[in-house]
Amino acid sequence: MHSRVLAILIAVVLALVATAAMVVYVNGADRRAISGQQPVYVLRAKRPIPAGTSGEDAENRDMIERVPVPRSSLVDGTVRAPGQLDQRYAEVDIAKGEQLLLERWVGAEDVGGRRLLQIKEGHQAVSIGVDLVRQVAGFVTPGDRVGVVVTMPLGEGGDRTQYVLRDAQVLAVAATALTRSSAQGTNGRVNQGKGSQTLTAVTLSVDDRDVKKVIFAAEKGSIYLTLLPPTADEAAQKGPAVGEGDVFAGP
Q1: How far apart are CA 169 and CA 124, in angstroms?
Q2: Which of 31, 65, 76, 105 has the most CB atoms around its CB within 10 Å?
Q3: Under 8 Å CB-to-CB from 178, ≥6 apart: which residues?
Q4: 146 with 204: CB under 8 angstroms?
Q5: pLDDT tens track of the chain, all 251 residues?
Q6: How many angstroms separate the CA atoms of 38 and 24, rounded?
Q7: Cα(164)–Cα(56) distance, rounded to whole angstroms?
Q8: 113 — alpha (psi -120 to 50), left (phi > 0) or beta?
Q9: Do residues 4 and 38 make contact, with C-beta atoms less than 8 angstroms apart?
Q10: pTM, 2 dp
Q11: CB atoms near residue 249 (< 10 Å)
């Protein structure tokens, strides 16, 4: 009799211990699951980001979005704030939906091929030196559309002014000014690229067919940039070259 009661008591105790252990395990599993699902905000590619794109440019062009992901899905080294990408560039092409990893964003000196300019197919990047006045008093900035006008001496025919490019995109405006030491002028005018004035490098996206014209104009003439509105009509810029006779023509 006593043995049977003792066996029942032991069975009850074991059942209670097993139940308590199960409760503890389940609660722990729930806590682990909840902890793994706690959202963490990270930066993700909203659309493809080409190699060479700066962090600032990617953010300004709406290529990056901040999204929550479960902590269990968090990748080591994920970028969590835009400030982490300051002065950094995408080292490789980044696919849409990828979490941004800091190791894939490097300094300008480490960018493969230094592809820091986004150049359209069939175009080349060409830099010309333009002083402050001739770049619309410094209002020309990257992304603007500009016209490129050259004034060039034509022997006994005098100087003539004509468009070289009617609509070119500005890729970059250098922050550092370049100074030329030798001055060579024509009729009191300092030639582009050879003057004593302080010049700023303005980099343009130029059609393959026009590259030589732009370089020749920069070497031999004096260049002005005109700032175009977004709705500029190229037809409004057409017309023959002009000279002194056109400027001082009578009524």
Answers
A1: 11
A2: 105
A3: 129, 198, 199, 200, 201
A4: yes
A5: 566 666 666 766 677 667 766 766 655 654 555 454 678 889 999 989 988 788 888 888 889 999 888 877 777 888 988 888 888 888 888 998 888 998 888 876 666 555 567 788 899 999 999 888 888 888 888 888 999 999 988 777 678 888 999 999 988 886 432 222 333 333 333 334 444 457 788 999 999 999 999 999 999 899 999 999 877 665 455 666 666 566 666 55
A6: 21
A7: 32
A8: left
A9: no
A10: 0.48
A11: 8
Q: Domains of the chain (ranges plus CATH)? A: 40-114 (3.90.1210.10), 123-238 (no CATH)
The phi and psi torsions of 10 (rounded to 5 degrees) equal: -65, -40
The CA distance from 67 to 44, in Å, is: 7
Amino acid code (one letter) for 60: N
Q: For residue 9, with 0-12 CB atoms within 10 Å meaning exposed, 13-18 middle and 19 or more buried, which class applies?
A: exposed
Q: Enumerate long-range contacts of 178-185, CB under 8 Å, 24 or more apart.
A: 178/129, 180/129
Residues pairing with 129 in the sheet: 201
Give just the sign of the alpha carbon dihedral 149, 153, 154, 160. Answer: positive
The sign one gets for the Cα dihedral 5, 10, 15, 17 is positive
**Residue from 173, 101, 180, 176 nearest 143 by CA:** 173
Contact in structure between 170 and 186 (CB atoms under 8 Å): no
Q: Cβ distance 182 to 111 under 8 Å?
A: no
Q: How far apart are CA 146 and CA 224, in angstroms?
A: 10
